[in-house]
Every structure is written in structure tokens, then in C-alpha cells.
């Protein structure tokens, strides 16, 4: 018995010690092929990233240099773009605009997480009269192009008197108005077996306790993805603030970036680029911090039994 | 601990499908009752109705003196162990165990004490600070049992708790659970248990009594011995026992007071062990005999059914013979040392059922007509 086990192992050891010419050839082939693969990947990756790299490089250039050379490396690095850009041509600094964005994003993200979880829990776990029709409505709004609702929504918020405030920008989302997120969470919940919730009910938890103590923790990767999506989309949202915000003091960063283009005749490109870099930063930082959950969230049901 | 009573319990689903047809069952205080049956027999539905996870559409469930029909699961005084353990994946074992007590707002020292007690009983003390995903199947199962035990419920419900474990672990968990039940009894806190399984080995080895179900009806409730030796109908007879009981269409005649069984064109007289048990005299019946209760003799022996071996399965200590008699296949289990050489396919043998072990069933009602005054 032992010899029959030892024999192949010994043979294997011998083989690795003295590789035949054929094996050396194969090994070399494999190495060359992976080298080619990684070279192609690196080149394509760099091409994709180049605009971003150029953006960061150019934000340290002087205005005259930006269009003079295609290289991303600034010859005479300067912080003037950041300093002057931050000051803006308005009475407010960029800090004000970042604060405005923060005031929109915070209630929007928190509200979305809470409201969408509640609505998704209801749809995924309970039977109630009219459920099918309501769910069909949710899916229908998902398919509806955004533009269609812009005008009616504008009129509605005008009548309520919410124009030039942050409310139209976050209240609908905080009331589970984003069907996409509701749908996403429902799909996640459907993939989670009900046994844990039933066990919690047997343990004496009521519906709300089951949601808080059992469902939300299991749904966490999905909820984090929802928050991330909402954060990035709101950060990038230009049209919403453009429609509803009219006074400069209420501008979020996405609108404020446009300011420097509007108000001066000769564009200070380095200021615009510098502020773009700053505007990108929060999304990038948040994404990299939550990357693990985000990828887990969009790729799987997130829960291992 | 309390008695559990089901009275004309019914379950009809929205579409009009009736899953449970008015069943009556009483589980005594401290009794280990096993619900067993093929899949789709509504055993799990019944258990979930007892737990309160399914609504009851008719009848009544009593735990102790209370009707619990409309009481939420958490207040019924039950604890349940689920098939796939259903441990809370984000909580450590310690918190999984104590979740119920924490919800009730029990004082911390009490919760800590109860957790220690239960983990000692189930030997999971070393696992208390692990997450469920760091547990093996058997460990997770013990934690699931612990989560039920810690609540000191009036009735324990087990929903096929061992079916996700491998055969070896299943055997050892079976023993553990029965031991635990006995230990609790001897410590003066007997546990009323309802245990659902589709595995007859679990049913036979664990249950004080077994309730065999089929399509939402109870076929028989009895202790394992009775179930095996005096099945109430051909369904129970066929369901309990390995290999299955032979059930073959036959004609019963009682010429001269001695009952005879005719299969096809072969008739044998059963001179002893059957006559006094019969509740009908003559007619078409289903003839039932367990493979273990058949004598296999050399071909041509008098007063035997004669047949041809189609398959001989050698299992070491015994041989399963598949014998063809008038187009019907008969299985006989014979100890290996019964033969000097193992019979081969195509060989003609004679088989004689042991009179005392014969069961006859009504072909229409499927009821056992050979129980007599037993």
C-alpha cells in the first residue's frame, strides 16, 4: 500500500528536478503568453486612465502650459489653480459648495437606505392586497425615462414652494422614490432564505425586530452598494441642481464647476481642472473605502448560509 | 413541559389545495413523537402550523391548556430547529444562543448563565465566540439545538434537522438527540418533542411513538415495534422496513378452515399463525410479507411458491434475492450462511412465508385484515 502511494510522489519529485526539454519549452511559452497578456492589459488600462492622469497633472500646470504640451507632467508645477479655483469669482469659496453638496447627499443617502429597505422588505416578504399592481408600478417607474417626469415634477415642487431649496433634490429619494434601489434590494432579499427570519419569529422577535436584527445585517452588502450608488450619482448629478437651484449660495459642486466657465471670458482652465480633481476625490475615496462591500454587493446575494 | 394536542387540524391553501385533512394527534408530556412520511405528505406543514409559521385554516392546536391558533410563534412556548440550521450568520454562536432571551429583556447574568449551561450540555463551549460560517455541519446543528434548548420551551419542534449531515454524523447526532431527551427526562424536566423526518431509520430509532403521514392524512400512530409488526395498512407496511415489505395481489381462500394464498396459478396453505387473525374469510387481498420473513428452500419443495432468481445482491452478512413468481417480483433477505453456495441468477427456488409474519390487506381500503384481535 505504502509503495503504491510513495511511488508517484517520488516520480513527481524526480520530474521537477530534471525537467525535460519539452517541459522547458512549454514553460517558456506559458511565460511569454502571460507577459503579452499583462502588457496588453497594462497598455489598455493606461489608455483608459490617461484622461484622469492628465487631469490631475494638468491641474498643477499654468494656464499657458495646459494646451502647449500633451504630456501630463507639469514643467513648472503650481498650486495657483487650486488656490484661485477655491476662491472662485463669487463671494463664496468652494467650501460653501462642498457643504451644499454634503447637505444634499447626507439626507438623500440615509433616507434612501432606510426607505428602500423598508419598501423592499414589504414587497419581498409580505402578502397584501394590491401587491402585484404596486410592484408593477415600481417596475414601470424603473422603465420610465427621467426626462418624462422632469416637467410635472418641476411644477409640483414649484407649487409646494420648494424651488431654490435642497428639498426637491433629496426628498423623493428619501421616500423610496428610486425604483432601481427598491428593485435591487428586493432581488437581494429574494435570494436570502427565510429560515433565519422564521427562526427569529420563533425566538420571539416581532416584524420590526426581525427587520432590524436579522434582515438588515444580512442585507448589509446590498445596502452599502445602494448608498454608494446614491452617493456617486448625487455627487455627479448636474441636471437636478441646474433645474431646481437658482441662487449661487445654494449651488452644489457640480453646478459650481460650471461657474468658472460662465463668468469669465478667458477660461482659467487650470482652476476648472483643479476643482474637478477635488470634486472627483470624494467619490473615489468613498468607492475605494467601500470597494470590498460594493463588489460583494453587486456580484452575489452577499449571504452565505 | 406540556402536552400538545392537534384537533381536526386543517390547512387549505389560497388556491383551494388542501394540504392537511383534519388530523387529530396528541403528543403526551415528555414524549418524543416523530412525524414521518414521503415528501409532500404535509408533515413539515403540520410542524410549521404548530410553530405558528403557517396559518391554520381549520381545527385547533393546544399546547398545555392553551389554544394557540392565533398566538404568535414567539409566545407559543415552542422552540424550533430548522433543516438548514437557520443560524443568524452575522452573530457569534454566543449571541445566536441568547438572541431569544435578549429579546425578552432578561437580565445579563441570567442570559450568561443559561448560555454557559446549554453550551456545556451540548459541548459547544469552545465555539461560543465563532461565527456560524466557521462551524462544521455537526457543530452548527448543535448550536441550532442549543438555541432551542436555552429557551426551555414547552414543546421542541425539529424539522428534518439531520438531513443536511453526512451519514456518519447523522448517526452520531441521532444518538446525541435521543440521549439529550432521556437526560432531560431523568433530570426532571422532560421535553415534549415533535420531530419531522423522511428517514425511517431516524423515526424508528428516535421516536417514542411514530406518526406515519400520507397526503395530509395520518395513516397510523404507534410505537416503533407496533408499527413494524402490526402495520394498520399497506402504506405503513410498505413505508416502514428495509427492504420494503413485499406487497403482492393474491386471492385468499379458506377451504377446510385452513387459509390458502393464491398468487397467479400457485396456491399454498398457511396452516398456522394466520387463520385466527383474519377478519374476513375469502376474496382478493394484498399479500404482504417482509423480505426477512421468508424461508428460501431448494426448488420443488412442497407447499411453497416456486420462482426464478433474477438478481442476487450479496451484502456480506446477508443476500438479497429478487425472485420472480408469476410475473411478480419478490424480495427475500437470507443470511449468507444459509447457503453453501450463493444462489445464482436463473436458479429456481421455493419460498415459504412464515405464517405468523404474513399480513393481508384489503385491496380497496388498504387496511390490514390480518390483525385479528391483536
Distance between the termini of chain B: 33 Å
**Care to count the β-strands of chain B?**
20
How many structural domains does the protein architecture of chain A include?
2
CATH architecture of the largest domain in chain B: 3-Layer(aba) Sandwich
CATH topology of the largest domain in chain B: Rossmann fold
The CATH class designation of the largest domain in chain B is Alpha Beta
Order of helices and strands of chain B: EEEHEEEHHHEHEHEEHHEEEEEEEEEE
Radius of gyration of chain B: 25 Å
Q: In the CATH hierarchy, what is the architecture of the largest domain in chain A at level 2? A: Orthogonal Bundle
CATH homologous superfamily grouping of the largest domain in chain A: MetI-like
Average pLDDT of chain A = 85
What oligomerization state is this entry in?
heterodimer
Round the mean pLDDT of chain B to the nearest integer and report it.
90
Q: What would you call the structural class of chain A?
A: mainly alpha
- Low-confidence runs of chain A (pLDDT<50, min 5 residues)? 1-7, 300-305
Q: Any idea what the CATH superfamily of the largest domain in chain B is called?
A: P-loop containing nucleotide triphosphate hydrolases
Q: How many whole angstroms does the radius of gyration of chain A measure?
A: 27 Å
Amino acid at each position: 500500500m505504502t509503495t503504491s502511494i510513495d511511488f508517484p510522489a517520488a516520480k513527481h519529485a524526480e520530474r521537477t528536478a530534471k525537467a525535460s526539454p519539452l517541459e522547458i519549452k512549454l514553460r517558456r511559452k506559458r511565460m511569454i503568453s502571460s507577459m503579452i497578456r499583462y502588457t496588453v492589459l497594462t497598455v489598455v488600462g493606461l489608455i483608459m486612465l490617461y484622461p484622469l492622469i492628465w487631469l490631475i497633472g494638468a491641474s498643477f500646470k499654468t494656464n499657458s502650459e495646459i494646451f502647449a504640451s500633451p504630456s501630463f507632467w507639469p514643467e513648472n508645477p503650481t498650486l495657483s489653480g487650486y488656490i484661485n479655483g477655491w476662491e472662485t469669482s463669487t463671494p463664496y469659496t468652494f467650501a460653501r459648495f462642498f457643504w451644499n453638496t454634503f447637505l444634499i447627499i447626507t439626507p438623500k443617502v440615509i433616507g434612501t437606505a432606510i426607505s428602500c429597505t423598508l419598501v423592499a422588505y414589504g414587497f419581498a416578504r409580505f402578502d397584501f392586497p394590491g401587491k402585484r399592481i404596486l410592484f408593477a408600478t415600481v417596475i414601470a417607474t424603473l422603465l420610465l425615462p427621467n426626462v418624462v417626469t422632469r416637467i410635472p415634477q418641476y411644477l409640483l415642487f414649484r407649487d409646494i414652494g420648494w424651488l431654490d431649496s435642497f428639498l426637491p433634490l433629496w426628498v423623493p429619494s428619501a421616500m423610496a422614490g428610486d425604483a432601481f434601489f427598491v428593485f435591487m434590494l428586493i432581488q437581494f432579499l429574494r435570494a436570502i432564505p427565510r429560515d433565519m427570519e422564521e427562526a427569529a419569529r420563533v425566538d420571539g422577535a416581532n416584524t420590526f425586530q426581525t427587520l432590524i436584527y436579522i434582515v438588515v445585517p444580512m442585507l448589509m452588502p446590498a445596502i452599502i452598494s445602494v448608498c454608494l450608488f446614491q452617493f456617486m450619482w448625487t455627487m455627479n448629478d448636474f441636471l437636478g441642481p441646474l433645474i431646481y437651484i437658482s441662487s449661487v449660495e445654494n449651488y452644489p459642486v457640480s453646478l459650481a464647476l460650471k461657474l468658472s466657465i460662465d463668468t469669465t471670458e478667458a477660461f482659467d482652465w487650470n482652476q476648472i481642472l483643479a476643482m474637478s480633481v477635488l470634486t472627483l476625490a470624494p467619490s473615489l475615496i468613498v468607492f475605494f473605502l467601500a470597494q470590498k462591500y460594493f463588489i460583494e454587493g453587486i456580484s452575489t446575494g452577499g449571504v452565505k448560509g | 413541559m406540556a402536552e400538545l394536542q392537534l384537533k381536526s387540524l386543517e390547512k387549505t391553501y389560497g388556491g383551494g389545495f388542501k394540504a392537511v385533512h383534519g388530523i387529530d394527534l396528541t403528543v403526551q408530556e415528555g414524549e418524543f413523537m416523530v412525524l414521518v412520511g414521503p415528501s409532500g405528505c404535509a408533515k413539515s406543514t403540520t410542524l410549521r402550523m404548530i410553530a405558528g409559521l403557517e396559518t391554520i385554516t381549520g381545527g385547533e392546536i393546544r399546547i398545555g391548556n392553551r389554544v394557540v391558533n392565533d398566538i404568535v410563534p414567539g409566545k407559543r412556548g415552542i422552540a424550533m430547529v430548522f433543516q438548514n440550521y437557520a443560524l443568524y450568520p452575522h452573530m457569534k454562536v454566543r449571541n445566536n444562543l441568547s438572541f431569544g432571551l435578549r429579546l425578552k429583556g432578561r437580565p445579563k447574568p441570567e442570559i450568561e448563565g443559561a448560555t454557559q449551561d446549554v453550551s456545556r450540555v451540548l459541548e459547544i463551549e469552545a465555539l461560543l465566540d465563532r461565527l456560524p460560517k466557521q462551524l462544521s455541519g455537526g457543530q452548527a446543528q448543535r448550536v441550532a439545538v442549543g438555541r432551542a434548548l436555552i429557551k426551555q420551551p414547552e414543546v421542541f419542534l425539529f424539522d428534518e434537522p439531520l438531513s443536511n449531515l453526512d451519514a456518519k454524523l447523522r448517526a452520531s447526532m441521532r444518538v446525541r438527540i435521543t440521549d439529550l431527551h432521556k437526560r432531560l427526562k431523568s433530570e426532571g424536566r422532560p421535553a415534549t418533542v415533535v420531530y419531522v423526518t423522511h428517514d425511517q431509520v431516524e423515526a424508528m430509532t428516535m421516536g417514542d411513538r411514530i406518526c406515519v403521514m400520507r397526503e395530509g392524512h395520518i395513516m397510523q400512530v404507534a410505537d416503533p415495534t407496533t408499527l413494524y409488526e402490526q402495520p394498520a395498512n399497506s402504506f405503513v407496511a410498505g413505508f416502514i422496513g428495509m427492504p420494503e415489505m413485499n406487497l403482492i395481489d393474491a386471492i385468499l381462500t379458506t377451504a377446510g378452515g385452513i387459509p390458502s394464498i393464491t398468487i397467479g396459478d400457485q396456491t399454498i396453505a398457511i396452516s398456522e399463525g394466520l387463520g385466527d387473525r383474519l377478519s374476513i374469510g375469502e376474496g382478493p387481498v394484498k399479500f404482504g410479507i417482509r423480505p426477512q420473513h421468508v424461508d428460501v428452500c431448494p426448488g420443488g419443495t412442497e407447499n411453497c411458491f416456486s420462482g426464478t432468481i433474477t438478481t442476487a445482491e450479496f451484502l456480506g452478512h446477508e443476500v438479497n434475492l429478487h425472485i420472480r413468481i408469476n410475473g411478480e417480483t419478490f424480495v427475500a433477505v437470507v443470511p449468507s450462511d444459509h447457503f453453501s453456495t450463493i444462489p445464482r441468477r436463473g436458479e429456481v427456488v421455493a419460498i415459504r412465508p412464515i405464517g405468523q409474519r404474513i399480513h393481508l390487506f384489503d385491496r380497496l381500503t388498504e387496511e390490514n385484515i390480518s390483525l385479528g384481535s391483536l
